[in-house]
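EI: anyone free to look at a 926-residue chain?
SC: sure, send it
EI:
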Amino acid sequence: MASASCRKCGRNLDFSGDRPRFCAYCGQPLDGSALEATIEYSPAPEAGLTVVGPSIGPGASIPDRLAGYRLVRRIGDGGMGAVFEAEDEVHGRKVAVKVLSDRIGAGRESIDRFRQEGRLAATISHPRCVFVLAADEVDGRPYIVMELMTGQTLQGLVDSVGPLPVEEAVLRILDVIDGLIAAHRLGVIHRDVKPSNCFLEADGRVKVGDFGLSKSLAADTSLTRTGSFIGTPLYASAEQVKGEPVDERTDIYSVAATLHFLLTGHPPFEAKDATAALARIVSEAPRPLRERRPDAPAGLESAVLRGLERDRDRRWRSLSEFRDALLPFAPHPIPDAGLAPRVAAFAVDAACIGLLWAALHLLAFRPLLGELWGMMLSDLVSWVAYFGPLEGLLGAAVGKRLLRLRVFRDDRRAEPGIPLASVRALAFYGIALLPWSLVTTIMEQIWGDRILDWGRESLGFALANVLLPALGLAIVLGPMRRRNGYRGMHEFLSRTRTVRLPRAARRREPSARRRSARDSSIIRRPPGVLDHVGPYRIRGAVRWESGRRVLAAEDSGLGREVWVVMSADRSEQPDTARRELNRPTRSRWISGGETPEGRWDAYTAPAGAPIADVAGPEGLPWSEARPILSELAEELSSSMADGTLPASLDPEQVWVEPDGSVQLVDPLGGPAPRAGHPPDQPRVDGDRRSLTLLARVAALALEGGRRRSSDATSAIRAPVPAQARELLDRLAGPGPRYDRLVEARDRLRGLASEPDELTFMARVNRLSTFVASIPLRLAGTTLLLGMIHAAGFGERMHDASGISQARVEAIQFACLSLILWPAMAAVSRCRWTSSFLGAVLVRDDGMPPSRPHCAVRELVIWAPLMGLGLVAIFVRTGAAWGTPAWLLWAVWALPGTWVLIDMAHELAFPGRMLHDRLARTRLVPR
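SC: here you go
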């Protein structure tokens, strides 16, 4: 082992064989190395990276048949072996078989690596990943069986048609990201994502495959190589080049590099040989995307370049975060922003403009132009300087970015650019604010101090300050209608619009309750259970019934958990549609066969727990239950469309995976649709059975152990948003029901864009309203108390009781408050405050509170406040001379402390201040 030293960074590089040409840490060329078109780079095994080695030569001995698979043709070479199109002679399906190379297979380490590759890939069952069917060994030769990908790769697509349109490229890469997210959830890092490993299906969707399924690396004209290398140089991250450990962010780099290729037709770095390319990866930043693709939105360029950062700590933290950044550029409708978030964003931006205005006025324009004209010019310049660059280049200033709003061109495809954004800002300012600013400045210049004296000048100045801004805003806001996306006059003039970014479907992290539920199913081993069925080792029985049994088993070749369904009816073979079904919401069929006991079929085993166990005794919040119901409705609808709806549907078949996704585990139900015997069930029967299942699952998810699984008729009692209440009432309850599943499915789709709980802004509004209501309530009570005093009642009470006047007034004030406000709450049912907040007050069971309940809730709010206030007054009026001042202040702070504690509870539990928890009520979105 030789060593070389880098003169730039001072690090030593150990190597064997030829001297390295560049430093793997800083990219500095090293003296004495010749230019070569091949590389030999074999880092230490602890780097944990995929190694691509020599391929199988044409003369390698590969049999025509391999363990029941007839090899049809060779379709590619991978580093560990060759890939063949093959026919499964047992089930009659076409598959891809990867066979370990003769040259590689001699080493034990290579065989173990090959097997590990199959085991890791087999843990992933996702429509956007190539599925591994089996792995075994024949005569000492390991092989892996995978689904066959017959379409071209993304590499081939770009080679044939050139760079893709922006929306199409983003759509393709989102499929890649979805597949990799599924792998990352299972702890699998792909490590070799590239266009030639991403396969197109017949419907245009993309699947991520292993490098072994790509075209021969030896035939890759981009770079040639000998020996071994970790990953593919053109799409490898800096940490891969350096031989450092990889993590999820390594795949993020490769995904960003692949997207760069789809958009430009070129990888981020190009060179005459692989060595130079590697040197650039570790030492240079990639070229800006828009140098090659000028029409690419600036936001998209920013997202890609962040994914291509050399320092992994500066990349996106996760693929989900990267996916969120790409969503605005995908080909889906981006909704227009409503009025409420735009007003909230404007309030934030106005505060920022105020700071910029103050700096410009004090430091620049006031010294040059004086007070009045400096103020007006500062207005104009700060408005354009703030909105022009931020909205033109980034699509959003501070306020809009906080609320996920963006300013796009009228076609919704990209940011407007600085010229259009400046026109937009000038139009708004010129219409809404410039006349007011100009007129009032002239008035102050002419009238001066006379404005301060009451007269015609002061009246005219006051009217100008009120009417001119109101008139300007009316002109700007006048065209805003729902049908035109609430576009103002300034947006029509600048050909822009304000949109709301879609949110990625995101789930909460599985709770400890959910994780413990994964082992809730009892696997027993009754007498007579087999040790092996086909290639599977039986661990026990999940269900043991006469004529049909479900066994838990393990695929020893892949280390994968499977469920084997044993049926005495040999004709109970799933039909072709069920065998080929590949959705993450259904158990995937792997293989099947016959034994003397009957027919058996193997399915992927669920990793989660039944919905009843996940919900637990208290049920799930609507934010967790809604995605479950939505995915279940989508699966049932798809099953009805392709004829794979299970013969029986029961809530025990609905399982929730550790990541919160749903799976319909039909092995726990009745027989699957038989081959040659399509289910003869009318559409209406499928709708009825699916809606019944959806209702029962909704009840179990939301009510938990309080609900019997068989009860699908009584109303579901759970605190949900008002719009969700309508859905639940039409699923289960005494009123009209849904007739077709698509109605419930579409309603669930619509609810995905509605808030599941009070938003942050709604909670801030609630706390602000609560604080603002305190002085108003106190003022109203004081007014009534004044009327009582006018009647002399307080004096008579003081004379009769001998209590001091201050204490009498405090008692009267407290009693009056505890009568007046609960009475008003009972009359209004608290609707006036909840309507103002865009919320609805409900009980803990989701039902509207009665009038007495509303009165009790109001008492819970004000009784502690009044009680602590009385304590403070009694202590203050009875305090002896010389009582420490801090003690008196501490007593007076007690009511305020209660208010803060009450409000703090809202921050931890959305929709529930402390008084709501005590009164067993809560606010939910309207």
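EI: The chain is about 45% helix and 15% strand.
SC: 👍
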